[in-house]
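Recap from last week: sequence in, structure out.
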Amino acid sequence: MAGRRYLDGGIASPTSADLLTAEDVDEVVIISPMASRQTDRPRSLPLRIERLMRKVMTERVTAEIRHLQERGIRVLWLEPVPEDLAAFGYNMMDPKRRKTVFETALQTTPRTVDIALRSSLVNFT
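Predicted structure tokens:
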């Protein structure tokens, strides 16, 4: 656009939760489909590469949560469970998978929220 380059905010952080460390908030809900502490060992090369990228993003989100918690902010982290990861496939932006991802999320969301509520009692600091 007019000779300017723009970068998606996701290049710096998958959630931008770090921006909240300077805000006066008590609680933060982080929804991070690009980060997940779920681990598996997929066989296909594209999925192994995707999991490596996801690992880097997860480390970034974990650091952001740690900083928030150090400031006394309670964090609820909603992240994909294994069924969600399978529905995403290796290309998180594949529009052909939207319906499958949505239908999977309808099934997994109650468990995802339960996991997040239980793990919000765990402090990353």
